[in-house]
């Protein structure tokens, strides 16, 4: 092991070779119900990195597995060998001039690709439900499809070119003539063998016919044998075999897709039918119509989401046999859309429905329908008993058999005691998912699962000749059943393909092909109870792209995985070991606690709540006493902090910002704000409004000497709009308690909030007048604490609702950068912030690669690497011409200024500038 790591270090820096127990456990978990802990994890950023890993693993005769985002559901992204993480260096994007194709690295997220293509009216074909998280490497390697792409627009069908690295280190680029010529010479035997396999397959009319038949519906069981009958050129055969190969044949280092049209006009209908059979009759009628997607949901699936906001009330009163279809139509224009709606409705005329079908063109309604549909799987997982696992299986049937097969599946689930199970799926493709919960901690329960899966496989294969895996990939889950579905002849063909590409079986062994009939029952992931806050987590990984510490230390999923293991050890009386030693830094210190994970989590788990709870448990009595004293004497604390800033600027004048930053361990920032000055109340006539200047704006003053204090600027804008701001009594001694809450001192934080509430209540005359605050994090905390007792708005919310109608604004040309901080995103008020900034500036840039800035109150001072990591993409997202930025949280603005090199200030400064009349002095 030491020799392996040492050899890796000859090429890789220390931070990209991960050998500690905590992170090996964390990265050894994907969205499936399997777990293997890798011996070492290596982050590759380019082809040279990957070639070194291949050479070292070849030398040490150890197997390896490639991992993209880890959203795989069948166990294809875990290993006990070397786990190779695809880094951000592979997140390349290059669109053709005509936008008809796009060249992508395996490390870019699918939704990011579509975001960049959107203005061109194009997108990639594959559309898995996990597209906001999964990466192109995983999409291609699993031939992932989804709700709309079917079999016509998946990776196999839209592949235009590929750059692939084989296990021997050879690099083939099918879009580069020199590379192709060299490969034809160096790997002539491989190409000859592939050509021979294709000829033999085509010569066997029964086998060729079988392959064509199997791929008329969705099928990801085994290798893409259709490549042998669809193509003659062995290079085309090779690249199409790579699609769906799950990292067992080679590494896709780049792929070129033919893009597809993204129709701008869409409409959706949620249609209820008296039973499954009737719903499936409608599916058969809709199949030839211009519909983009038809999703089937049985009654149990509907019941799992029936309390979601926005759904029609009738859903809760439906009978037990009812089923639904979620239908979507699309078009380039409204006339075409209406024609498609009419065609769909005409097709199901005469089919019995619970109520008259209706298509909505309202984007929010349609988005809600699809969000709810995507939430069916995790909704079941969230309702499961603690300690159990949620399983989603994925099969496909000929569409003519869909109704009977669905009823058979329902009966089989009930027969085996899976009464909570739901069935849903992509009905146009005959593709069904069924979700149920399983206890893998009890041997008897494992046997129940084994018996159930045996019968499912017989049902799918022997009765309906369907696909055991339609779109989730074979993985470890279905590997023992490949021969059952395909037969020995076709499976032997797959074995020959594997031997040709990977004769030593070093690439992801045990995945796709596995001779162990019980392989699917091994390495089952434990899901022990840990904390009620996170026990509902199904470890899907949807949270990860928004987390500021992801790939620095741990993601929310990985924090939960690690804490579950620590909880299991504690319950079993086992020592925490190195895992317990490392968790405080990786799990707690570097968690921003921003809660953005909850906005992506299908069941709204806020892992920051877990972090705050665990921080609170770790606090000593002394720390609690200090926290209590801080809240009760906050005026003194603020004065001390301002003095520290003044001393810091004196030191900086001598040694410089950079040196002081090093001496302070990163706590001192470039362009650190001046110390705040006392805020004075403006005595004017006007409509009363209570203004509480949050402590961040009181302690941290303006960015440069001579600038106005935030509190002064806000009052100036309020007065200009005809308001008379009121400051609460002794406001400088008050705090909302946010900084105490972030440290887990919940009781002390609430005591501070209670003192603030008394002052706000008095100043607003018991809620008679609106109350505003100028820091989004604090505003959201007080909104939650007050729970509607007092009307409180963040400044940008009040600006949108009350100031824009009263102010005369002169728009600037820009550009200006907008940072929508995590509190604004969570509160759902980001649209208002955008409108305020857009009312002031013509060109507004909101960097898509930046979510939470990672400053997190004082985290930016204590663990500055979190702030630096969270903002690592901001430099590429902002053009050189954009030298100013706005946000709505003072500490966020400090971190943004330091890391971006641009000056970030409160949106209040921008509003003040643009609302000046020509006669006003600057």
TrEMBL record:
<protein>
    <recommendedName>
        <fullName>D-lactate dehydrogenase (cytochrome)</fullName>
        <ecNumber>1.1.2.4</ecNumber>
    </recommendedName>
</protein>
<feature type="domain" description="4Fe-4S ferredoxin-type">
    <location>
        <begin position="527"/>
        <end position="557"/>
    </location>
</feature>
<dbReference type="InterPro" id="IPR017900">
    <property type="entry name" value="4Fe4S_Fe_S_CS"/>
</dbReference>
<dbReference type="InterPro" id="IPR017896">
    <property type="entry name" value="4Fe4S_Fe-S-bd"/>
</dbReference>
<dbReference type="GO" id="GO:1903457">
    <property type="term" value="P:lactate catabolic process"/>
</dbReference>
<keyword id="KW-0274">FAD</keyword>
<keyword id="KW-0285">Flavoprotein</keyword>
<dbReference type="InterPro" id="IPR016167">
    <property type="entry name" value="FAD-bd_PCMH_sub1"/>
</dbReference>
<dbReference type="InterPro" id="IPR004113">
    <property type="entry name" value="FAD-bd_oxidored_4_C"/>
</dbReference>
<dbReference type="InterPro" id="IPR016164">
    <property type="entry name" value="FAD-linked_Oxase-like_C"/>
</dbReference>
<dbReference type="Pfam" id="PF02913">
    <property type="entry name" value="FAD-oxidase_C"/>
</dbReference>
<keyword id="KW-0809">Transit peptide</keyword>
<dbReference type="InterPro" id="IPR036318">
    <property type="entry name" value="FAD-bd_PCMH-like_sf"/>
</dbReference>
<dbReference type="GO" id="GO:0071949">
    <property type="term" value="F:FAD binding"/>
</dbReference>
<dbReference type="InterPro" id="IPR016166">
    <property type="entry name" value="FAD-bd_PCMH"/>
</dbReference>
<dbReference type="GO" id="GO:0004458">
    <property type="term" value="F:D-lactate dehydrogenase (cytochrome) activity"/>
</dbReference>
<dbReference type="InterPro" id="IPR006094">
    <property type="entry name" value="Oxid_FAD_bind_N"/>
</dbReference>
<dbReference type="GO" id="GO:0051536">
    <property type="term" value="F:iron-sulfur cluster binding"/>
</dbReference>
<keyword id="KW-0560">Oxidoreductase</keyword>
<dbReference type="Pfam" id="PF02754">
    <property type="entry name" value="CCG"/>
</dbReference>
<dbReference type="GO" id="GO:0008720">
    <property type="term" value="F:D-lactate dehydrogenase (NAD+) activity"/>
</dbReference>
<dbReference type="Pfam" id="PF01565">
    <property type="entry name" value="FAD_binding_4"/>
</dbReference>
<dbReference type="Pfam" id="PF13183">
    <property type="entry name" value="Fer4_8"/>
</dbReference>
<dbReference type="InterPro" id="IPR009051">
    <property type="entry name" value="Helical_ferredxn"/>
</dbReference>
<dbReference type="InterPro" id="IPR004017">
    <property type="entry name" value="Cys_rich_dom"/>
</dbReference>
<dbReference type="InterPro" id="IPR016171">
    <property type="entry name" value="Vanillyl_alc_oxidase_C-sub2"/>
</dbReference>
<keyword id="KW-0479">Metal-binding</keyword>
<dbReference type="GO" id="GO:0046872">
    <property type="term" value="F:metal ion binding"/>
</dbReference>
<dbReference type="InterPro" id="IPR016169">
    <property type="entry name" value="FAD-bd_PCMH_sub2"/>
</dbReference>
<feature type="domain" description="FAD-binding PCMH-type">
    <location>
        <begin position="34"/>
        <end position="262"/>
    </location>
</feature>
<feature type="domain" description="4Fe-4S ferredoxin-type">
    <location>
        <begin position="582"/>
        <end position="610"/>
    </location>
</feature>
<keyword id="KW-0408">Iron</keyword>
<comment type="similarity">
    <text>Belongs to the FAD-binding oxidoreductase/transferase type 4 family.</text>
</comment>
<keyword id="KW-0411">Iron-sulfur</keyword>
């Amino acid at each position: 092991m030491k020799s392996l790591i040492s050899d890796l270090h000859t090429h890789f820096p220390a931070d990209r070779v991960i050998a500690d127990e905590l992170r090996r456990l964390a990265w050894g978990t994907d969205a499936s119900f399997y777990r293997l802990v890798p011996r070492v994890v290596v982050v590759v950023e380019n082809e040279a990195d990957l070639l070194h890993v291949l050479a070292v693993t070849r030398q040490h005769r150890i197997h390896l597995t490639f991992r993209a985002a880890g959203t795989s559901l069948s166990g294809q992204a875990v290993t006990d060998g070397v786990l190779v993480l695809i880094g951000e260096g592979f997140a390349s994007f290059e669109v053709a001039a005509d936008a008809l194709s796009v060249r992508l690295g395996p490390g870019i997220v699918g939704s990011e690709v579509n975001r960049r293509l959107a203005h061109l009216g194009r997108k990639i074909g594959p559309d898995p439900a996990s597209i906001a998280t999964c990466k192109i490497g995983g999409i291609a390697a699993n031939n992932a499809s989804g709700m709309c792409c079917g079999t016509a627009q998946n990776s196999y069908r839209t592949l235009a070119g590929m750059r692939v690295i084989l296990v021997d280190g050879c690099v083939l680029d099918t879009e580069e003539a020199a590379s192709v010529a060299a490969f034809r010479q160096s790997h002539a035997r491989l190409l000859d063998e592939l050509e021979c396999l294709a000829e033999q397959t085509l010569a066997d009319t029964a086998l060729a016919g079988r392959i064509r038949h199997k791929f008329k519906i969705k099928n990801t069981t085994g290798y893409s044998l259709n490549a042998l009958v669809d193509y003659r050129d062995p290079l085309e055969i090779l690249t199409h075999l790579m699609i769906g190969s799950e990292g067992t044949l080679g590494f896709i280092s780049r792929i070129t897709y033919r893009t597809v049209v993204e129709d701008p006009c869409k409409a959706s209908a949620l249609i209820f039918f008296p039973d499954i059979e009737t719903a499936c009759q409608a599916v058969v009628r809709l199949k030839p119509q211009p519909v983009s997607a038809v999703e089937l949901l049985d009654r149990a699936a509907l019941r799992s989401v029936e309390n979601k906001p926005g759904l029609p009330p009738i859903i809760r009163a439906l009978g037990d046999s009812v089923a639904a279809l979620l239908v979507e139509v699309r078009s380039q224009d409204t006339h075409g859309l209406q024609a498609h709606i009419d065609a769909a409705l005409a097709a199901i005329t005469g089919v019995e429905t619970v109520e008259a079908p209706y298509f909505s063109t309202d984007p929010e309604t349609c988005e809600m329908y699809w969000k709810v549909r995507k939430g069916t799987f995790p909704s079941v997982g969230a309702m499961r008993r603690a300690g159990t696992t949620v399983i989603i299986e994925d099969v496909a049937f000929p569409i003519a058999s869909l109704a009977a097969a669905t009823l058979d599946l329902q009966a089989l689930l009930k027969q085996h005691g899976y009464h909570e199970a739901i069935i849903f799926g992509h009905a146009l493709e005959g593709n069904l998912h069924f979700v149920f919960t399983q206890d893998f901690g009890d041997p008897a329960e494992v046997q129940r699962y084994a018996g159930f899966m045996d019968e499912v496989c017989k049902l799918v294969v022997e009765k309906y000749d369907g696909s055991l895996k339609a779109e989730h990939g074979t993985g470890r889950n279905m590997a023992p059943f490949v021969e059952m579905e395909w037969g020995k002849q076709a499976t032997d063909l797959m074995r020959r393909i594997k031997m040709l590409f990977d004769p030593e079986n070093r690439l992801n062994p045990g995945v796709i092909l596995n001779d162990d009939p019980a392989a699917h029952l091994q390495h089952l992931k434990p899901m022990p109870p840990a904390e009620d806050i996170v026990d509902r987590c199904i470890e899907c990984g949807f949270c990860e792209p928004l987390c500021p510490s992801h790939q620095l230390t741990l993601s929310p999923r990985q924090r939960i995985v690690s804490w579950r293991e620590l909880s299991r050890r504690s319950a079993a009386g086992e020592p925490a070991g190195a895992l317990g030693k490392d968790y405080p830094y990786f799990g707690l210190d570097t968690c921003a606690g921003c809660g953005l994970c909850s906005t992506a989590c299908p069941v709204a788990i806020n892992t920051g709540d877990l972090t705050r709870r665990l921080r609170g448990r770790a606090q000593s009595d002394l720390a609690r006493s200090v926290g209590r004293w801080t809240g009760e004497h906050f005026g003194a604390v603020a004065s001390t902090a301002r003095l520290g800033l003044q001393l810091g600027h004196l030191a900086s004048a001598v040694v410089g910002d950079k040196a002081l930053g090093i001496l302070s361990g990163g706590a001192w920032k470039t362009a650190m704000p001046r110390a705040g000055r006392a805020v004075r109340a403006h005595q004017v006539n006007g409509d009363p409004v209570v203004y509480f200047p949050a402590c961040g704006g009181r302690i941290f003053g303006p960015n440069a000497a001579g600038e106005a204090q935030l509190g002064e600027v806000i009052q100036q804008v309020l007065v200009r709009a005809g308001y008379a701001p009121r400051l609460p009594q002794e406001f400088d001694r008050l705090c909302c308690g946010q900084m105490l809450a972030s440290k887990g001192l919940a009781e002390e934080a609430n005591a501070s909030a209670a003192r603030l509430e008394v002052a706000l209540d008095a100043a607003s005359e018991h809620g008679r007048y609106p109350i505003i605050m100028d820091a989004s994090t604090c505003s959201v905390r007080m909104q939650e604490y007050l729970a509607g007792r007092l009307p409180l708005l963040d400044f940008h919310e009040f600006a949108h609702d009350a100031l824009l109608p009263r102010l005369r604004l002169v728009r600037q040309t820009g550009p200006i950068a907008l940072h929508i901080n995590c509190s604004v995103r969570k509160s759902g008020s980001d649209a208002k912030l955008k409108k305020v900034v857009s009312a002031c500036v013509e060109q507004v840039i909101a960097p898509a690669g930046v979510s939470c800035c990672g400053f997190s109150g004082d985290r930016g001072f204590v663990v500055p690497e979190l702030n630096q990591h969270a903002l690592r993409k901001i430099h590429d997202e902002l053009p050189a011409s954009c030298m100013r930025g706005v946000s709505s949280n003072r500490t966020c603005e400090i971190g943004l200024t330091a890391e971006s090199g641009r000056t970030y200030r409160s949106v209040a400064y921008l509003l003040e500038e643009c609302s000046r009349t020509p006669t006003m002095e600057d």
